[in-house]
Amino acid sequence: MEHRSDRSDGKRRDLRRGSLRSIRRSMAFAGVFLACSFLFADMVGYAKILDIRAESDRLVAEHHHDWSRATEEPRLKMITTTKDPFTAENTYSYLRVVEKGSGRELFRKPVPALTQLWISPDSRFIVGISSVKLWNPYQLVVFDRSGRKLLAQDFTNDTRPGITQSTTNAIIWFQQPDPNIRLTESGGSAVLSIEDPLGKPREFRFRAPA
Question: At residue 20, does pLDDT exceed 50?
Answer without folding.
Answer: no
